[in-house]
Amino acid sequence: MMRTAALCTLLLSLACGIADARTVYRCVRGNSVSMATAPEPGSRCTAREIDDTAVQAPNLWGNMGVFSGVLYEREQDGRLVYSTRNLPGSRVYLKFTVATPPGEPAHEGLGKVGPAQLAPHARQFKAAARATGVDDAWLRAIAHAESNFDAAAVSPKGALGVMQLMPETAREYGVADPLSAAQSIDGGARHMRTLLRRYHGDRTLAAAAYNAGIGAVTHYKGVPPYAETLAYVDKVMALYARYRQAMGMGVEVPAR
C-alpha cells in the first residue's frame, strides 16, 4: 500500500476512466495515509479537488526513481470505489509502477529505520521540545531519519548536522554553526514548528516539506512524488511510532 498523498494525481488518472472521479480523498488511519475515490470507513478523510489535466503536467512522471503500489476495488454504499488501502471486501484492481520526476531537491536521509535511540543529545531534544512545543518523539524521529544523530553529518546535497539543515534554512533560523548539535536541534525544532503550523498539524505534509521544501509541497498540492520524499515520509512515520512507544507515549490518535 502506498501511504502518501503523492498518489493523488495517479489515483485520479486511474479512477477517471472507471468512475469519472474529480475528487480524491486523503484518508488517515493511525500513522498511514491512503488515497481513495470515496471516504474510507474508519479513517479521517479530507477531499482533494484535482485539476483534470494534472496528470499531464510536464515531468510529473519523469524518469528518476520508481515506486509501486496497488489500487483496490470494493463496493461501498451500492457503488464501486477505489482505494490504495486494502480494506475488507477489497479486491486487487490494478498493480502499478510509476517513475518519479527528475531533478528532485529532496534526499532520502542518512539514517536508517532501526530501534529508538534515546541517549543521543537527550538534553538538547528535551530543551527544544519545551521551547517550541513540538513533540520530543517527533523531533527525534526526524533527527534519526536525517542523520542518525550524527552532529558532523553532511549530505550529498549540502544538508548539515543532526537535523540536516540546508544552509539557507540555517541562516533563516539564526543557526550560526549547523554542526553544533544544540544549535542544529534548536533550529530544526523551530523550523518544524513553522511547518506544523503551516500544515495545521499534518505530520505527513510537515515531514515532506522538511525533506523536499515548502515549494515542492505547494506545487504538487501534497507530498511530492519524489522517490526520496516518499521513502523519507514513510521512514519518519515508522520511526515516530517507535519513539512514542520507547518514550511511553502510546499510539497517537489523529485529531478530529
TrEMBL record:
GO terms for cellular component: membrane. It comes from the Bacteria. GO terms for biological process: peptidoglycan metabolic process. Residues 1-21 form the signal peptide. GO terms for molecular function: peptidoglycan lytic transglycosylase activity. PROSITE patterns: PROKAR_LIPOPROTEIN, TRANSGLYCOSYLASE. Residues 125-221 form the Transglycosylase SLT domain. The keyword Signal applies. Keywords: Signal. InterPro entries: Lysozyme-like_dom_sf, Transglyc_AS, Transglycosylase_SLT_dom_1. It holds the Pfam family SLT. SUPFAM superfamilies: Lysozyme-like. Belongs to the transglycosylase Slt family. This is Lytic transglycosylase domain-containing protein. It comes from Stenotrophomonas tumulicola.
